[in-house]
Amino acid sequence: MGLPAGFQWGVATAAYQIEGAVDEDGRGPSTWDTFSHTPGRVAGDHNGDVACDHYHRWPEDVALMGELGVDAYRFSVAWPRVQPSGSGAVNARGLDFYERLVDALLERHISPTVTLYHWDLPQPLEDAGGWMNRDTAYRFAEYAHLVAERLGDRVERWITLNEPMVVMAYGYAFGTYAPGRTLLMDALPTAHHQLLGHGLAVNALRGRNARSVGLANHYTPAWAATPGDEAAAGAFDAVINRLFTDPVLLGRYPDLGGHGAPLEAAVRAEDLKVIAAPLDFLGVNYYNPTLVTTPDADGPLPFDLGEVTGYPTTGMGWPIVPEAFGDLLRGLKRTYGAALPPLHITENGCSFPHEVDDGPRVEFLNAHIEAMKAAVDDGVDVRGYYVWSLLDNFEWASGYGPRFGLVHVDYETQRRTPRRSFGWYRDLIAAARNP
Question: Binding residues for substrate, per the UniProt record (predicted)?
Answer without folding.
Answer: 17, 118, 162, 287, 388, 395-396
